Amino acid sequence: MDKASFEQQLIEWRHDLHRFPETAFEEKMTSEYIAKALTAMGLEVHTGIGGTGVVASLKVGSGTGMIGIRADMDALNFTEEGERPYASRNKGKMHACGHDGHMAALLGAAKLLTERKNFNGTVRFVFQPAEEPGKGALAMIGEGLLEQFPMDEIYGMHNMPGMPEGTIATRAGGIMACEDNFVIRIKGQGSHAARPHMSIDPLVIASEIILALQTIISRNLDPNVPAVISCTEIHTDGIRNAIPTHVEIKGDTRSYTPEVQQMLEERMQAIIEGICSMHGAECQFEYTHEFAPTVNWKECVDVAVKAALNVAGEAKVDANVQQVMVSEDFSAFLQNIPGCFVFIGNGGASDGKGNIPLHNPAYDFNDNILKIGAEYFAELIRIRLPQ
C-alpha cells in the first residue's frame, strides 16, 4: 500500500470508529469492526477477552520474543459539539478522549507489520475495553490475557492536546497518577430557610469541609510531592426555601505513592469527622482505589525513545516529560509485565482543533498524527524483535 493510500485508510478507520462510539464494556460494534479489519489482514484474532476486548497475534520467523501493543476502545457519555461529516451517531456518546484515533493507529501498525514482516517473533495487538472507568485492563488480565497470550513487554500510547502535533514524550518511572474516588455523606437537620437557627445546616458544613480538604495538600504534604484533591459534585435533598437534611459530596484524589494515598485518606477522614462533630452532624466517608499509578519500566522507556527518535526525529521527542495527574488503566499491565506508555502530541495552541482538551464535547482527534502513531508502534516491534 502506498503512502497516500495508507494515510487514507487510517483516516477511514478513525472516522468509522468515531461515528459509532460505545462506552465501557458495551463496545460490541467496535469490537466487531476491529476484528473484521484484523481478520482481513490475515491475523489470528480472538474476541470477548475481558468482555469486549480483542487480541490479534502475528508471528514472523522463529523468534521467541513476544511484544504487546495496546489501544483503548471505549467512548464517553458526552453529546458531541461541532459539525463533522463523521460525527457521532450514537446519541449522548462520543469519542471525546481520542480512543478512536488510538485504535486506528494500532490497526495501522498491524497493517504495516503484516506487509513489512521486518521482525522476528510474535506481536500481540491488544484492543482493550473500558479504560475510562479503569476496569478494562483488569478485566482482560482477570480472564487470562497474559496466560493465553503471553507477552514479554507491552507498550501503549495516548494523544495529548497542548503538545505540538506529532511530538512523542515519555519518562522513566511514574508518568501518570493513581486515582482514588471518595463520597462524603453529611446528615444534618433540615429546616425552613427563614429559620436557620432550628437547623444543623449540612450545606454550611459541606462548604467548610470542601475548603478544609485543600489544606491537606498545602499543609500536610511536602510541596515537592505531587497530589491533588478535587471535590467535583455536590447534591442535596433540599429545595429553594428549605435547608436540606442531607448533602453528598463526591470527588477524587491523585497521587503517586501508597504512602501519599494513605495520608490523604486518613487526613480527609479526620477533617470530615471533626467538622461534622463540631456542628453536631453525622457523616459517612467512603474512599476507593480506582487506578494505580502508571509507572514506566526504564529499559522499555529506552526502547520507546529510540523508536520515537527514528520515527519523529530528535526535535520532536521528549524523553523526560513532566508527570501528569491524569490516570490510565494501562497501569494494570505495567504492574504485571514490563512496558512503557507515551504521549503523542495532538496539537499545540496554534494548531486549532488539536488543542481542545480531552473530555470536552468539542474535542476531536487530529488525523494528521495517525501515521506517526502507526509508524511508532511498528518501529517499536522492529527494534524489540530484530531479525
Automatic annotation (TrEMBL):
Residues 182-273 form the Peptidase M20 dimerisation domain. The keyword Metal-binding applies. It comes from Paenibacillus sophorae. GO terms for molecular function: metal ion binding; N-acetyldiaminopimelate deacetylase activity. It comes from the Bacteria. The Mn(2+) ion enhances activity. The lineage of its organism: Bacteria, Bacillati, Bacillota, Bacilli, Bacillales. The keyword Phosphoprotein does not apply. This is Amidohydrolase. CDD domains: M20_Acy1-like (cd05666). Its cofactor is Mn(2+). Keywords: Hydrolase, Manganese, Metal-binding. One of its GO terms (biological process) is diaminopimelate biosynthetic process. InterPro entries: Amidohydrolase, Bact_exopeptidase_dim_dom, Peptidase_M20, Peptidase_M20_dimer. Mn(2+) binds at C97, H99, E132, H158, H359. Signal peptide: none annotated.
